[in-house]
Amino acid sequence: MSYIVLARKWRPKAFDDVIGQGVITQTLKNAVSTGKIAHALIFSGPRGVGKTSTARIVAMALNCEKGPTSSPCSDCAICREISEGKSLDVIEIDAASHTGVDDVREIIENIRYLPSSGKTKVYIIDEAHMLSQSAFNALLKTLEEPPPHVLFILATTEVHKIPVTILSRCQRYDFKKVPTGDIKGRIKLVTSSEGIKIPEETLYLIAQESDGSLRDALSIVDQLIATFGVEVKHDDATRILGISDKSLTKSILEAILNKNPKKCIETLNEMSEKGVSPKRFAEDLLKVMRYLLLIKTCGKEIISEISDDEKSELESLSKNESVETLEILFKLMLEAAEDVQKSFYPRMTLEVTLVKLSLLERVVSLDDIFNKIDTLSKKISSGNQSRHEANKSPGKPPENEEETVYDINSPSVTGVEARSTKPDENQRDSAKSSSLEDFIRFVKSKKPITATGLEHADRINLDNGILKIEFLSSSIHSDHLLHQDARENLTKLSKEFFDQNLRVKVEVQASSVDKSSYQSLKEKSSKSKDEIYKDPIVQEVLKIFGGRVVKIKHNEKE
Questions:
Q1: What sign does the CA torsion over 355, 359, 360, 364 have?
Q2: Distance set, CA 186 to CA 183, 192, 204, 303, 308 (Å)
Q3: For the purposes of burial, counting CB atoms within 10 Å of the CB of 274, is it exposed (0-12), middle (13-18) or buried (19 or more)?
Q4: How sure is the predictor about 470, in pLDDT bands with cuts at 50, 70 and 90?
Q5: Alpha-carbon Rg of the chain, whole angstroms?
Q6: Is the pLDDT confidence value at 558 over 50?
Q7: Packed helices 536-545 and 366-391: angle between N→C axes, nearest 10 degrees
Q8: Which of 461, 472, 479 is closest to 519 using CA atoms?
């Protein structure tokens, strides 16, 4: 076979060609230049990030005809032999198929011999974690004190399986996943050099699909070339790779944010027709929700996996949503993605999840709530001041006469009125410091049944040392308060609360005149309720918080 896959053809041949591992390559270059390279190295990290390629570059740097040098020429006979895997002095061992102690003994026997053409004999043990425990034990002494012309490089994807005794004898380098932007730039260079036309958005898609592995990305490009030739269209790439279309994913996200469950299911059906599995789609939607949250909280610059156009689209989608809403959506989608992966019916699980997300009520941040409360408080204060000034009219009763009246059925927000009668000084101070409503709450804490009777009274007056409780008609509550025990309890509690001796008087009015007064009071109450509903401040509250009037509670007038 004359065709060489892109991953092999474009394998790095110098430290500067290794992408995404700048710290490691710079350290190795300095070590080679100063002649202070360790006798044993461990390269650990995920697949396809350049561990074995870097090991070969180290071997070339040490054995190059111009070396040791941090910039091997790649043109001399030794560099070419190492690059092609033909050098007798650079021995690559697959530990997955050479796991026994006999294989390690063979290495120990051969290291005694000097290199045939180069300066250093290099042993590259790939997937070193696959060696058996006995093989590791046999290698310990040699790995600790090898001959001066020998270098060991152990490459592994599972460094936690390497015994601590081995790790302590090696200099460790942890390779990271290659950033998506670096992978995209690399495959763009490769495709343009090879004369392959792939859209920019497809390059981002391939880079994301590779999950930090440059080798995987180049393998995907090879697959697309084998299927579509040198010109690849975005739709064809998503179809052949089974990757969800970004536009459809964003369409479902828009439907969720717009509370449109029908659109969610229709788009999901369209994706199913294109062969995208529910499990794969759940993962893609979870990633997009992560992008939304990161863009909202940290800005577009924090994300490197997607293009600038996609970032702008996601930013416009999230601009009207609170951080709290996006957090809840992400959390629910994270739980749903796990459920979809484990479910025997992933499609139905995903459908229910999309409906749930699209019907989710939006969350308002605490800062917004506090700001709205502050704004509302200022408006209420302004309204109260206006009403206070309006009350200072010529028709207002003289200030030298005052009586405190508590009207249960009045829909007035304050529920306490002031009107003319000349008060005792002690009574005036007491009435100002304590309200009848507070008194009812105090009674409720001591005698709940008696307090219930007070709450159902039609009117309560506090006048000239008399606590007068009136009922427009007889009821179980009036009967209870007419009992001597109840009145005695009220006398004691009023003494304790108001700090003065009050006489408790309970009256039940059942005449026709009282009934007509009662009806008039009810009509007045209904009229006042309508006025409260139309109050500008009440309307402002309903507008800000999106609520409705459930109950009118009578509070003390300021």
A1: positive
A2: 5, 10, 11, 18, 18
A3: middle
A4: confident
A5: 42
A6: no
A7: 180
A8: 472
Of 93, 90, 82, 183, nearest in space to 131 by CA: 93
Helices (H), 85-213: 101-110, 133-144, 164-167, 180-194, 200-209
List the domains of the chain with CATH numbers. Answer: 6-176 (3.40.50.300), 244-363 (1.20.272.10), 403-542 (no CATH)
Kindly report, residue by residue over 368-393, the tens digit of the pLDDT.
676 777 777 766 666 655 555 555 54
Lowest mean pLDDT among 104-108, 183-187, 264-268, 466-470: 466-470
Residue for token digits 């909202």?
296
* Amino acid identity, position 368: D
pLDDT in tens, 489-501: 888 888 888 777 8
- CA pseudo-torsion sign 361, 367, 370, 376: negative
Q: Is 353 exposed, middle or buried (0-12, 13-18, 19+ CB in 10 A)?
A: buried
Is residue 423 within 8 Å of 403, Cβ to Cβ? yes
State the Cα torsion 540-543-548-549 to the nearest 10°. 0
DSSP β-bridge partners for residue 172: 42
> What is the full DSSP assignment across 88-117?
SSEEEEETTT--SHHHHHHHHHHTTSPPSS
Cα–Cα dist 555/541, whole Å: 18
pLDDT at residue 52, as a whole number: 92
How far is the C-alpha of 234 from the C-alpha of 464, rounded, in Å?
90
Look at 516 and 15; give whichever has higher pLDDT: 15
Q: What is the pLDDT of residue 401?
A: 41
Q: Please give the pLDDT value at position 173.
A: 94
Tell me which residue has tokens 């990290």. Answer: 45
List, in sequence order, the alpha helices (H) in 246-277: 246-257, 261-273
